[in-house]
Amino acid sequence: MAVTIDLISRSPFDEACAERVILSEVEGRSAQGDKRETRMRKPPWLRVSLPIGDEYERVKAEVNARGLHTVCKEAACPNVAECWGAGTATIMILGDVCTRGCRFCNVKTGNPRGVVDWLEPYRVARAVRDLGWKYLVLTAVDRDDLPDGGALIFANTVRAIHERVPGARVEILSGDYRGDLTAVDIVVDAQPDVFAHNLETVRRLTPWVRDKRAGYDQSLRVLEHVKRRAPKRYTKTSLMLGFGETDEEVEAAMDDARAAGIDIFTMGQYLQPSKKHLPVVEYVTPEKFAQLGHLAERKGFHQVVSSPLSRSSYHAEQAFPKG
Questions:
Q1: C or N: which end of the chain has fewer Cβ atoms within 10 Å?
Q2: Dihedral sign, CA of 275, 49, 96, 177?
Q3: How far apart are CA 215 and CA 195, in angstroms?
Q4: What whole-number distance in Å separates Cα of residue 322 and Cα of residue 61?
Q5: 282: Cβ–Cβ under 8 A, 6 or more apart, which residues?
Q6: pLDDT at 142 over 60
Q7: Contact yes or no for 87/165 (Cβ under 8 A)
Q8: Rounded to whole angstroms, how far apart are CA atoms 38 and 40?
Q9: What is the CA radius of gyration of the chain?
Q10: Contacts of 203 (CB under 8 A, 6+ apart)
């Protein structure tokens, strides 16, 4: 069993993210619709340094030159320099415009109108090879404008990486394909090393936090189906904390995840990307993250990652033994 429970993460991230996420103040209205106006400042454990390092700068230049979209930048991830420096990354395929409008997410919402770059899988595979990435998390915007939700591009990208970069591991951070299990099978049959799909929040808050086309039970059905289809592959899900969920609701989500056969469970602090997104209700302490992480460990997950600055793909490679 691999467990990562960081009390305080000191991972750096870019200046734009620092200005938007770390130095900003947020107006705290609860996710349940509470209209009380309060001012919440970031606690000290969420203050991190700006990115430094030759490897970070090299990868940043290469990513920009190749026109790749990374969640590391699009979602303002606080761990970008640490992950890039360690030879891991999260690439976002199928464009940078999502057909859904989850109230926590900083990715652009719109209608891509069926546009697909069928050469993208090969460009991504070349980048993985040239940059020497050992572990790639592959995600995508939701593409409800496509009949298969983008499943074929996902599958082609996984296969292209495995063919061109032997030994590299590929984790899929997938959407739900509107619950279409045939589309899910297209991706699973490409044999990603990990199939991840995020619950994002607890059952009660799902209608408020996520797009109306998503669903707590729909997400669980997708993950349960993946485990039945490929029992030897890891499945994974993640929660953001700070929307006003209770400890009991978080534990219930853990139990639901275990019942669906999920192997890896991660938790991190929700940070409001802008004033138009859901406000933070609570900054969960590092001690609380540690407590919840140990609870998840006792539930029997293969890997648990739980800290304020953890994100779905943080320490993803540690699910596998070294060597």
A1: C
A2: negative
A3: 18
A4: 29
A5: 241, 242, 244
A6: yes
A7: no
A8: 6
A9: 18
A10: 216, 249, 252, 253, 256
CA-to-CA separations, 226 to 34, 83, 231, in angstroms, rounded: 38, 27, 8
196 touches 173 (CB < 8 A): yes
Query: Which residue has better confidence, 31 or 281?
Result: 281
Scan for tokens 């699009």, then name that residue.
Answer: 74
| Residues whose CB is less than 8 angstroms from the CB of residue 259 and which lie 6 or more positions away in sequence, other chains included | none
Apex 127 CA angle, 145 and 124, nearest 5? 20
DSSP class of residue 177? G
Q: For the residues of 255-281, what is the DSSP string, one character each?
A: HHHHHTT--EEEEEE----STTSPPPS
Residue 109, classed as helix, strand or coil, is: strand
How remote is the C-alpha of 141 from its chain's centroid?
11
DSSP 195: E
The 8-class DSSP code of residue 200 comes to: B
Judged against a pLDDT cut of 80, whether residue 132 lies above it is answered with yes
> Can you give the pTM of this predicted structure?
0.82
Do 83 and 91 meet the contact criterion of CB atoms below 8 Å apart? no
- What is the average per-residue pLDDT within 42-69? 73
CA dist., res. 119 & res. 128, Å (int)? 15
* 8 Å CB contact between 93 and 137: no
Q: Which two tokens stand for residue 220?
A: 């669980």
Short-list 87, 236, 105, CA closest to 172: 236
How many Å apart are CA 178 and CA 81, to the nearest integer?
33
Contact 289, 267 (CB under 8 A): yes
